[in-house]
Write a structure and sequence with these properties.
With 167 residues, the protein is of the alpha/beta class. It contains 6 helices and 5 strands; from the N terminus they run αβαββαβαβαα. It has a 5-stranded mixed β-sheet with strand order 2-1-3-5-4, with helices on both faces. Helix 2 links the parallel strand 1 and strand 2. It is elongated and about 80 Å long. The termini are far apart.
């Protein structure tokens, strides 16, 4: 009898564990596991920005392709590999603007002000021929995240890993 009860208890606990691990019942430990929302290629000028964008990818569900901007980068041909840029260096910003990149309309003044207090980054994009954004949803999510609207970035801001990005 003890054996049957033990088997039943183990079975019930195993089924409960399997059910809760999928988070379909809302009891999955409070984990927010994003589903893939699409792919976006983001150019960056500092290694710390790539690390920061890795957090964005993990928490927002976008599949990010990273494109480093280096001294040898041909900004006129950058559109072949990236349509969004998150940069800090003023000289890089000027090179991108000269190549036709614009500050994204998704980047509101309030978000800019909030990000200036955090990391001081600039979000640029290369519009398509009609002037529209190809990555509108991804850029909107990115700007909300970088300004701390989508998720508080307090831990990242105080982290030594991102000290070089702080003003």
């Amino acid at each position: 009898m003890k054996k049957i009860i033990a088997i039943i208890v183990i079975s019930v606990l195993s089924l409960a564990m399997i059910g809760c691990s999928c988070a379909s019942c809302g009891c999955g430990g409070g984990q927010n596991v994003p589903s893939a929302k699409g792919e976006v290629s983001i150019a960056y000028d500092k290694a710390e920005i790539r690390d920061l964008l890795s957090y964005y990818q993990a928490n927002q569900g976008y599949v990010v392709t990273f494109v480093p901007l280096e001294e040898s980068t041909d900004f006129a041909k950058l559109s072949d590999s990236a349509r969004v840029a998150v940069v800090k260096d003023e000289a890089v910003i000027e090179h991108l603007k000269a190549a036709g990149w614009i500050e994204t309309e998704q980047w509101t003044e309030a978000q800019k002000a909030s990000n200036e207090k955090l990391f001081g980054l600039t979000v640029l994009e290369l519009p398509n021929e009609s002037g529209a954004s190809l990555n509108k949803d991804a850029v909107a999510a990115l700007t909300r995240w970088l300004s701390g609207e989508a998720e508080p970035l307090d831990d990242l801001v105080t982290s030594e890993d991102f000290a070089a990005l702080k003003n």
